[in-house]
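Cross-check.
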Amino acid sequence: MNDATYTLKMFFSLGGKPSPEVKSKMERNDPALLLREKISATMGKNGWSAASEEIYKKATDLLDISVSDVLLGAWNKYQALKKYLDKEKYPSTQSILVPLSEHTVKSEHNPHVEILVNDEPVGKITFQIALTFTVRGAILIVQDGKIRGFKTGEIRGKGTLKCEGLLLLEQDFRAIPLPGSVDLGDGIPIAE
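Predicted model, tokenized:
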């Protein structure tokens, strides 16, 4: 998916290391405290320092989800697109521009980081990501029962990132800088 790589990591303005505030919040919640005790018991007092850096790095990697993928996940299930699955009415050689009215896409994700010490699981930390995107002026390009690309229009989003229910980050509505046109190559099949 060319150029459409604006990710949730970028949306939440996360770099490689968490801010001291986020790190402090994560370390104070109950699951992290229990995990810290287990890791320290297994690896000694320096174990948690090494493990926590890796946990933060992996947690940030979990946010490498493209905003375009989130939107496409909703769009390919859009009921009004199902009619374009009819090959007699819409031959595979025909490209159709489908303007979308202003709409909201809500998406939730629950990724986790599983911690292993000497190949043995010692715990898991689960994150909750809740997103709301408002899309205005988007146009889908449909061909052969697939979304082959789209023109982005204006997209604004807001979201929260929680760790085991504890709010770490909150992002109010802000513009999402996707390119004006996204080519999806072979396309994303419209769900039946």
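The chain has one domain: 8-189. The chain has five helices and nine strands. Passed to J.P. for a second look.
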